[in-house]
Design a protein that fits this description.
This protein is α+β, with helices and mostly antiparallel strands. Helix content is 36%, strand content 28%. Strands 4-3-5-6-7-8-9-10 form an 8-stranded mixed sheet, with helices on both faces. A 5-stranded mixed sheet has the order 12-11-13-15-14, sandwiched between helices. It is globular. 47% of the residues are buried.
């Protein structure tokens, strides 16, 4: 029998929690001061705080675990057997406009498995955290997905990006509405997934997401009892891909409505 590789998940968990909080202090300072903003592309904002937070996370991760890879939204990187996947500010358009619905997202991936996930909104002082097999929490308290099973009572968040044609999103929106669900968009995919884990929303759908936007949230939803797409096994770490994360009661119907597969 092959030897099982030992990975210090306890140490990585402690570090992940700690740097989520410390990065949050940098984000809060930038949010309060209205740090400089520029555009990377259509509806794609970048602030000085994005760079400062990512550098803080990268420096701390490399100092503690230099053997791990790093993949960040702003400075890039590459997939690796052990890799940290980071979005320094998810919801940058909200952040830039003074809307306190944004977050820092950190995931640790081993092979094709998400082992750790943290999503922190410093403006609301809410830290979501999950470790594979150990459940999901909000500020240390266990959370679970909603029990919703009726689309007429469901609230679904539909993310959007310019990586897919607008017509595809319009079709998905119409199909979800036709089933009776309410649809909203909060402009932070990571927080949208965290809200599914906490039962604030019943599902999150996006036709294409980058890994730094969704990996921590997908683990949160899984550990909170939800159903998600097989993102990593479909090559998501390298290419990105579609995301569906839902309470079990509406997951099959939502998959049918959008044409997006969910894990068995």
């Amino acid at each position: 029998m092959a030897e099982i590789e030992h990975v210090d998940l306890d140490g990585r968990e402690e570090l992940c929690r700690r740097i989520a909080w410390s990065a949050g202090m940098i984000a809060l300072d930038g949010f309060a001061s209205g740090a400089g903003i520029r555009m990377k592309g259509p509806q794609d904002f970048l602030t000085e705080t994005d760079a400062a937070v990512e550098e803080h996370l990268k420096a701390n991760l490399r100092a503690a675990f230099p053997e791990d890879g790093f993949l960040g939204e702003e400075t890039g990187g590459a997939a690796a057997q052990h890799v940290w996947v980071v979005d320094p500010i998810d919801g940058t358009a909200n952040f830039a406009r003074g809307i306190p619905h944004y977050c820092i997202s950190i995931a640790f991936v081993r092979g094709d498995t998400i082992e750790l996930g943290a999503i922190y909104n410093p403006s609301e002082c809410e830290l979501y955290f999950a470790r594979r097999g150990k459940g999901a929490t909000l500020n240390g308290r266990p959370i679970t997905v909603a029990p919703t099973a009726d689309f007429n009572a469901a609230c679904v968040e539909l993310g959007w990006s310019n990586r897919r044609p607008n017509a595809s999103y319009v079709a998905a929106l119409a199909s979800i509405l036709d089933r009776g669900a309410n649809v909203r968009r909060g402009a932070s995919g990571a927080l949208g997934l965290a809200y599914v884990a906490n039962g604030r929303s019943d599902a999150y759908v996006e036709l294409h997401m980058h890994p730094w936007d969704c990996l921590a949230g997908l683990l949160l939803v899984q550990e909170a009892g939800g159903i998600v797409a097989s993102y990593l096994r479909g090559g998501g770490l390298v290419h990105g891909g579609p995301v569906i994360a839902a309470a079990p009661g509406i997951a099959p119907g939502l998959s049918e409505a959008t044409g997006l597969p969910i894990a068995p």
